[in-house]
Specification:
mainly alpha, Growth Hormone, Chain: A
Length: 530
């Protein structure tokens, strides 16, 4: 009986060409589920092409607002709450990422992606029509509720249509869309704020969202359906989102609105810790927890999340503080410092592409990101020791950082997908993006605390250094103090890169599957049986 069940499970998971080898008759193959049909490369490219616009919009709205903040503040007459235009999007997008992954595992990727695009479009319309800072912040929060689901859904859809062995190749292309949006966002935002009304940052999202929804609705019909009967753990989702909200508020307000050791920040940290403990307690007792224990107990999931969180946290942290370093240490203008930031943004794509290509041919596919991250770490250590290096040398160092951090993205993402049961891909991708966003906020908070402790000022969270901060720091700090401050900041970046390398080395290098629906390598018996 057990042999028959095992063979049926293998036949049920196999692709059409593989079922012939197992010994299934042609009549049995003719009734195969649509999920078992292997998509052609043209169909895969068409699906990913339909997702590219949605990803581009989600990434663009995280950066396009940054350069328009001063214009928005003047137009709405409110500078005090201006950072919340960025923070509101970050908070909501971070909190809902695991929720979208869970919902897509239950109701299917296509329907949940259309919901995410609809919410994002509604948030864009609300932001564009805002007549006060409060309305704009609420609109941006609504945008985050939609935009936070686009990336984990895209990663899950790729997992539905491409085997792990080939997945890194396509993950690299989706990563390049994200990086391109991050690069052009500040330029578009600056142009619009200078020559057009600031609301034009949001109005174009409406037709583009409609186009993305039409493309997604048509192309995603090709995606195999893997919906399963699940229950939504509302209590667990609420506890996780509440703990994340309080922790992000502490990381965002610490060192800017309140001192790190102030009563407000300590209370937020204590509440976040208590809610996290309560969430863990609930997961162990809920019949179907919001984050399955099997996902969190998977060693590749845990180590992979730490790896990508540290690597991407350093990337984002340096993206925020390097422009200020160029202005204060090397005396570059705001425009020139923004242009000098291009290497770290643009070189992420080649690193991701090379790493993804290596996964197609190498059994030891971790070799490429380990080497690239090692070069990046060495370069950042050099910058921490000698922060007065010429600008062109610093630009080369930023190129290595971009390639190193970019190379870890496809390897970690595919390794997690390869090790997790397919029915849990959505929640795994949402969880990975959730922890990556938390780590990014943590790295930025540490760098900001260093700057605050040494200079008494820190740039706005999620945006470039403001002219006011630059003027204050430039007028009150000596050159030695500035150099020493940024040396500490770069040392923090090097420390987190070292952690990323160690975790990547520790992460188990399992053979990548060549089929989509085959059971994950070394799955637990309960997972394989399902």
């Amino acid at each position: 009986m057990s042999v028959t069940t095992s063979q049926n499970c293998r036949i049920d998971e196999a692709l059409p060409s593989e079922r012939q080898e197992i010994g299934v008759s042609k009549s049995a193959q003719s009734v195969a589920r649509p999920a078992e049909r292997k998509l052609t490369k043209r169909e895969v490219v068409a699906i990913i092409g339909g997702l590219a616009l949605a990803m581009f919009l989600s990434a663009l709205d995280q950066t396009i607002v940054a350069t328009a903040l001063p214009t928005i503040g003047r137009a709405l007459g409110d500078f005090e709450n201006l950072p919340w235009v960025v923070i509101a999007y970050l908070l909501t997008a971070t909190m809902v990422a695991p929720l979208y992954g869970k919902l897509s595992d239950i109701y299917g990727r296509r329907r949940v992606m259309l919901v995410a695009l609809g919410v994002f479009m509604a948030g864009s319309a609300a932001s564009a029509a805002a007549s006060s800072m409060l309305m704009l912040i609420l609109g941006r929060a609504l945008q985050g509720f939609g935009g936070g689901g686009i990336v984990p859904l895209t990663q899950s859809i790729i997992a539905d249509i491409v085997p792990p062995r080939e997945r890194g190749y396509y993950q690299a292309y989706t990563g390049s869309v994200w990086i391109t949006a991050g690069a052009v966002g500040p330029l578009f935002g600056g142009f619009i704020s200078q020559h057009l009304h600031w609301s034009m940052i949001f109005w174009p999202n409406l037709p583009l969202c409609l186009l993305a929804a039409l493309l997604s609705n048509r192309k995603l019909k090709l995606v195999p359906q893997h919906e399963r009967s699940h229950k939504i753990d509302l209590a667990g989702a609420g506890l996780m989102m509440a703990s994340a909200l309080t922790l992000l508020l502490a990381l965002t307000w610490g060192g800017t609105r309140y001192a790190w050791l102030s009563q407000q920040i300590l209370i937020l940290i204590i509440v976040a810790a208590a809610l996290s403990i309560l969430f863990v307690w609930w997961m162990q007792r809920a019949p179907e927890p919001f984050l399955p224990i099997t996902v969190l107990n998977n060693p590749i999931m845990r180590v992979g999340c730490v790896t990508t969180a540290c690597a991407q946290g350093v990337n984002i942290g340096l993206t925020i503080y390097v422009p200020l370093y160029y202005q204060l240490v090397h005396g570059l203008s705001a425009t020139a410092s923004g242009m000098a930031l291009i290497p770290i943004v643009m070189m992420t794509t080649p690193g991701s592409y090379l790493s993804g290509r290596a996964m197609l041919y190498l059994n030891h596919y971790k070799f490429v990101p380990i080497v690239m991250l090692s070069f990046a770490t060495t370069a950042v250590v050099l910058l921490a020791l000698y922060p007065l290096l010429p600008v062109w040398v610093v630009a080369m160092i930023m190129c290595l950082v971009g390639m190193g951090t970019g190379s870890s993205y496809p390897v970690v993402t595919v390794s997690i997908q390869n090790a997790i049961a397919h029915r849990q891909i959505g929640v795994a991708m949402g969880t990975m993006n959730f922890f990556r966003a938390l780590a990014s906020s943590f790295v930025v908070a540490i760098m900001g605390a260093i700057m605050l402790a040494n200079l008494g000022a820190a740039p706005e969270r999620g945006g470039p250094a403001s002219n006011a901060v630059t003027a204050i720091v430039g007028g009150s700090a000596t050159e030695d103090l500035l150099v020493r401050t940024f040396s500490y900041i770069f040392a923090v970046g090097a420390m987190f890169l070292v952690i990323a390398i160690v975790m990547l080395i520790v992460m188990e290098e399992r053979p990548l599957r060549t089929t989509v629906l085959a059971p994950a390598a070394r799955e637990a018996p309960a997972e394989s049986a399902e």
